[in-house]
Batch of 2 targets.
Target 1
Amino acid sequence: MNTNAGEFLDSLESLDALGRPLKDLRISVTDKCNFRCPYCMPKEIFGANYEYLSKQSTLTSEEVVRSATIFRSLGISKIRITGGEPTLRMDLLEIIQGINSIGGIDIAMTTNGSLLTTLAQDLRRAGLGRLTVSLDAVDDTTFSKMSDVSISLDRVLDGLESARKAGFQPVKINTVIRRGWNENTILDLVDYCRKSGDIVRFIEFMDVGSTNNWEMSEMIASSQLLETIQGMYPLEAVSPNYMGEVASRYKFSDGKGELGFISSVSQPFCSSCTRARISADGKIYTCLFAVGSSLDLAHELRNGSTHREISEKILALWEKRDDRYSELRSSGPTKFTNDEKIEMSYIGG
Ligand code: SAM
Ligand code: SF4
Ligand code: SF4
């Protein structure tokens, strides 16, 4: 196996069918979670009888690190660890240490925050660079409704505090606003982040998967959230940190931090989407809404394929990529049926 990360960099870089380079990677390390957010893993579906991936089919920590090495050699410099809930993986620190040892990769992770009190420092030491915590409310009642488990809001808030103390500053907060569920919490969340120094990013409720009963009427567009927040705190638009940044950023005019909006439904950003995804069982997807996997990386990793052979298959896949689901959704009905769509907890948000 050839694991020299830089070796193929120049020779193999390429653009997809719509001219987009491959720049970042999301790796889902588990499809399991200790929350049951109804917009992602509704209890009625993800109950005792739900068939999760087996341990055998899930990528091992070594396989995750090898995958990261291959993608690094293709020019990837950002990896986000996600799930399911990544902190449920017992070998999470090994995974992060392994990816960190490749070099040249900015490692981020998205978590529900429930296990951060014990993990935050070790994650930092292992080489995790940035942390995003999902938090859909800062009052107990709404939080419980949005997470649908008995884990308390305080546990997540304590986890956030541990993360800040461990050096993750600023922490980013992901908040999905769903009409009729948690729009009451918008300004409280903004206040919370203005005090804590975290950066909140409001995410539009998306039609990922086929189990969350998504309705367009429950999606509140970012423009409307912006108006609500502007009514309380004047905001000024800020230019993106880098080309292709998915969140549109605003800073508070009084200097007390910034926030962002991820408007996947109302303002799709497919034209600058440079992201590949690996599911927990090692399938590569080139879109959050892809129908069926594009390449069985686990199979390639397990059948003795070389670094170069796998790299070439990934590039061949990328060169054919023409996904732009969100753009197509805005221009009319899509070709997909609900049965074909993959779940967010499997592919990673
Ligand atoms: N369990 C971790 C967490 O919640 O942060 C990581 C995985 S979760 C699938 C990643 C992100 O996807 C979370 O911020 C979550 O809010 C978001 N998400 C899940 N389902 C969504 C949906 N239908 N629309 C928009 N965002 C969604
Ligand atoms: Fe779990 Fe995250 Fe999905 Fe909520 S959004 S159910 S925390 S994977
Ligand atoms: Fe990227 Fe697919 Fe989302 Fe468009 S719909 S931004 S191509 S993941």
Target 2
Amino acid sequence: MLLQGKKGIVFGVANQRSLAWAIAQRASEHGARLALTYQGERLEENARELARELADPALICCDVTKDEDIESAFKRVREEFGSLDFVVHGIAFALREDLEGDYVDTSREGYRVAQDVSAYSLAAIAKHAAPLMEERGGSILTLTYIGGERVIPHYNVMGVAKAALDMSVRYLAWDLGSRGIRVNAISAGPLKTLASAGIRGFSKILAHMKEHSPLRRNTNQAEVADAALFLLSDLSRGVTGEILHVDCGYHVMGI
Ligand code: NAP
């Protein structure tokens, strides 16, 4: 029970395949009380259905492109939980056309949207989470991908947003470290989810990784959730600003 007595908020649960959901389940199994957010009415029913598996959850509607939504989400958390121990940020979005062609064709609007939802939202969320973590410190975790470090064809503008997200982890770790708040990321190997379904050629990426990663297989949701449990719990109390690759070792390879 590594998270017994801890309270967390999880952003990015769309369905059962969501990485954020795998992490939420694992956190709940380890004793955490959770607030789950969903983006809008379209996914409210999904979130409600999944939340039935959790003990005493809070369900909060939050579109991270709206400052007022983020503000009211944390107001709800303060009212219901009083304080907060961890945040899981499992959110990313890019326009579909920007994940199909060439990066050079990215529109100004496509670039703005990808950065806003996928990178800026971490800073906005951290700003509101920090005051609720003041007493005991806390752990903020986001999810990134190797496409922010190296070129993965068709990942395009999302790779550029992930690079910004990775640097945000490091700047936020410095900003919030003096308040006992740690900020880390898991760089997950490719997995089939709603978000990854929008990337052209994604099945080729999966096949390539299976053949070329040191473990000769693809990553699964459960192993991302286990690594998240470590980063959210006190076991990782000396770790911040870290990007932990949970990708069957693929990141060490030259091909
Ligand atoms: P997912 O289930 O589709 O989760 C993405 C989530 O982001 C969805 O819940 C989505 O909600 C939410 N979102 C998008 N725009 C939002 C907004 N404006 N406000 C609030 N929420 C918003 O896919 P996933 O693969 O688990 O993605 C979770 C994270 O893991 C992402 O950061 C992704 O880049 C990262 N990651 C994924 C992989 C992979 O291969 N799957 C690998 C490495 C890292 P809606 O569905 O309502 O838009």
